[in-house]
Amino acid sequence: MATRTTLVSVTEQLGALNLNGESHAQEQAQTNGTHGSGHDGQGFGTLAVHAGQTPDPVTGAVIPSISLSTTFLQRAPNDPIGGYDYSRAGNPTRANFEEAVAKLEKGTKALAYASGSAATSTIINMIPTGSHVILVNDVYGGTFRYMTKVASQNGIEFDFVELTEPNNIEKYIKPNTRLVWCETPTNPTLRLVDIRAISTIIARYNSDPKFAPAPTRDPPLPPPPTPQDGIPRITFVIDNTFMSPYNQNPLTLGADVVVHSVTKYLGGHSDVVMGVAVTSNPAIYARLKFLQNAIGAIPSPFDCWLAHRGLKTLHLRMQAHERNALRVATYLSSHAKVIEAIYPGLPSHPQHELAKRQQKGFGGMVSFMIKGGKEEASRFLSGLKLFALAESLGGVESLAELPSQMTHASLTPEARAALGVTDSLVRLSVGVEEIDDLIGDLEQALVKV
Ligand code: PLP
């Protein structure tokens, strides 16, 4: 009884706090979004700290314990006491993390996976052999690899399409198109895709009865989803890794599924590899939940706990990342040894207006082209002392890398050239260190070029 009273009072306290994050909304005056209104009248920071974190009803522990048990007690066959039966199918620590991410992404449900790539492959597994997928052309290298080397083996067709002009997509939509996959901003050239515009085009096809018949094949394709199934004919997925839910909520702009490499900003400390998918569509959720269990690419309870711990400071970290990234981008854009600095928060970015409209902030990723080629870029990267020369992004520490040799090495030279991933393009994940130290490090390394 005492425990129950404690729980009720914690919930009441939360309600009474009614923090709505308005002060942060004011700080974000330069962008078009607000973090002030979350679910249940709570703002982003409040949800980040409290969602999925009900104190333990038995011990009163404010931080729920990590649930390591692989199996769960049942009252009678198929009547589990707490709703869990086996930890691959569902786990309390994982469920806490999933609940928190669903709320932050303004979705209803989330599902966690062993990595961002596991989330990607599980989503692609939703569609049958013979389906066609449209992806933005500068998609994450691992997603490119999965489509070209794995999904292709399973009879999935695909097109990589330049989507900075949204209408381009219409040239590629086919009767067997089942999925559209975008990232925005893209990696590493930070181009934007207009999520609302693409979702409007997809919705038009999804509701067009003339577009219904599937192509005849041998063996024939399974019938396309119907509105009765609840899964859209073409499902629209956004990889929101670069923005994090703090800066962009694609579900509110018409996307059906949001996917994250939790390894990046959500975890935020470069110590856990994990992925997550979020949706508000019950039929998509049911299918992805089934696949989460059937394929089994689930994260460990400890990883879920670590990622959830990171999530609680997402709002604070994203503010610091953005503050530093804007200063770094501004510094680089006027440096004599830099041809071009790319950051959606700079007025010089060709899609700056779209960034202000679609995003609530500009994030922590900055790319730039050094004068010269591979040699000069390598000299700069080897000369860095504070920025670590390493793949990945989104952690509190600043990282630098050369996409042509590292993250995007799996692309053909022609594909890299078409995307503008030149030998001198450097990508920075700007961390949360002191800005003067970061700029000092860039300066001393540029001197060596
Ligand atoms: N999506 C994006 C945008 C990424 O940058 C990455 C990894 O770098 C992934 C997905 C894959 O995530 P993971 O490395 O967690 O498998």
Automatic annotation (TrEMBL):
Keywords: Amino-acid biosynthesis, Cysteine biosynthesis, Lyase, Pyridoxal phosphate
GO biological process, any: positive regulation of hydrogen sulfide biosynthetic process
Region feature (Disordered): 24-48, 209-230
One Pfam short name: Cys_Met_Meta_PP
Bias type Pro residues, positions: 216-227
Keyword Lyase: yes
Residues bearing the modification N6-(pyridoxal phosphate)lysine: K264
EC number(s) per entry: 4.4.1.1
Residues spanning the membrane: none
Domain of life: Eukaryota
The keyword Magnesium belongs to this UniProt entry's keyword annotation: no
Annotated pathway: Amino-acid biosynthesis; L-cysteine biosynthesis; L-cysteine from L-homocysteine and L-serine: step 2/2
GO molecular function, a single term: pyridoxal phosphate binding
Polar residues bias: start-end ranges: 24-34
Biased composition (Gly residues): 35-44
Family affiliation: Belongs to the trans-sulfuration enzymes family.
Protein known as: cystathionine gamma-lyase
Source species: Gonapodya prolifera (strain JEL478) (Monoblepharis prolifera)
